[in-house]
Amino acid sequence: MNDTSSVPDIVISRLPSYLQTLNQMAKEGWHTVSSKVLAERVGTTAAQIRKDLSFFGGFGKQGTGYSIYHLIEQLQKILNMDRVWSAIIVGAGDLGRALARYQGFAQRGIEIAMLFDIDPKIVGTQIGSVVVRHVDTMESEIQKNNFKISIITVPAAVAQIIANRLVEAGIQAILNYAPVTLIVPGSVQLQNIDPVLQLQRTLYYLSDD
Amino acid sequence: MNDTSSVPDIVISRLPSYLQTLNQMAKEGWHTVSSKVLAERVGTTAAQIRKDLSFFGGFGKQGTGYSIYHLIEQLQKILNMDRVWSAIIVGAGDLGRALARYQGFAQRGIEIAMLFDIDPKIVGTQIGSVVVRHVDTMESEIQKNNFKISIITVPAAVAQIIANRLVEAGIQAILNYAPVTLIVPGSVQLQNIDPVLQLQRTLYYLSDD
DNA sequence: ATTGATATGTGAAAAAAGTCAAAACCGCAT
DNA sequence: ATGCGGTTTTGACTTTTTTCACATATCAAT
């Protein structure tokens, strides 16, 4: 997952949830927070938060804690979130359309720029703020607009083919909703979202009725 | 996450993806597989697969590998997947409705039994194979039917309230799509799905244009 | 039967991740 | 100024997880 970077991927993976909680606290009117309080809200330990942050330098003030505003700013910079990223969605089925309408992307700096599908009945229709384009134009749009991020919501059977095309066209990060294990080059960031896999993981702990 | 169990949670969390790949291979006509080949398809190492499986006993045959059919059966049993589980969805917005129509649950042993919402305009309408019920009937239905699993797709502002009600009513596993950090008792399995958090995690690795 | 190629299961070593606590530091009250 | 309570830093320590490598087992071919 991580390449030559010295910061472990597992640390990076926790930062977004810190950021989410910090934003929540900022909205509630907090100005400063200790690692202990933040840990309680995030659901981790104070030591872990301090250790994670220490990879990037010391952001806190001893005896006081962390300035929430300052810490948010720093985390956004670390995560390359101090800008708006454009993403495209491939597959305008139920899920693709629901994601295209989801406000949470725009609210957190991800603009859904385009939506592609292969079905002529769907191409041309308006979903949220974008018009569905034909998937044949996908590669050229990616290159023209220099898109780096794509969300895959196509049927499992064609997900790998789409992934290959996306990678070939220059996409660097893929959020895959299709229930298959995609194979992509190591240089491409792949995140899988499969609710069934996540549920299965919990079944192990459920008492058998 | 794991309590007194001797099998680490991180091991459990990998089993569903093994199972997914094994099912894929079975469909492709394979009958047997080595840890090496499976590892390549899953995207891990042979040693890790063998070590993981060894927590539950020896399923393979030396010199030959694993019988795919047998291994699928064993993993399903380990994960309590050798039965159909019922789940409910709370929140019939875009996402909740898309999930209610998603065939992937039924195909993999999760039956979406009921769908709840608070909006009188939506209550009573048919989504997929279920009719939307009023959220006020949620607790009684959970208890009457002994539901253990719930998917939360309500707005962030009310997610914690819903979670509290679900836990109180006896729900043991929650799949949370709301972009907030929920607080639940340790005895309740919580899995969060937030596409934005997963994307943010990849941004760190993207080159700045 | 014997050999060679292949593959598992597992204990031990290595690496990674997480925890702890002493030292340093800040701001405030006295 | 000084002392004190609270909190970060930092690095040593502990625990967990992953990797390694080898003894053992199977199968097919000779």
Any chance you could write out the topology, listing elements then pairs?
2 copies of one chain form a homodimer.
Chain A lengths: L8 H19 L4 E2 L1 H8 L3 H9 L5 E2 L3 E3 H11 L6 E6 L3 H8 L2 H4 L2 E8 L8 E2 L2 E5 L3 H8 L3 E4 L3 H14 L3 E4 L12 E4 L2 H9 L6
Parallel strand pairs in A: 4-5, 4-8, 5-7, 8-9, 9-10
Antiparallel strand pairs in A: 1-3, 2-3, 6-7
Helix pairs in contact in A: 1-4, 2-3, 7-8
Chain B binds a DNA duplex (30 and 30 nucleotides) through helix 3 and strand 2.
Describe the protein in words:
By secondary structure, chain A is an alpha/beta fold. Chain A folds into 2 domains: 70 residues, Arc Repressor Mutant, subunit A (Orthogonal Bundle), CATH 1.10.10; 113 residues, Rossmann fold. The first copy, chain A, has 9 helices and 10 strands. Chain A has a 7-stranded mixed beta sheet. Chain A has a 3-stranded antiparallel beta sheet with strand order 1-3-2. Chain A is globular, with a radius of gyration of 20 Å. The two termini of chain A are 38 Å apart. The mean pLDDT of chain A is 94. Chains A and B meet through α1, α5 and α9 of A and α1, α5 and α9 of B. Chain B binds a DNA duplex (30 and 30 nucleotides) through α3 and β2.
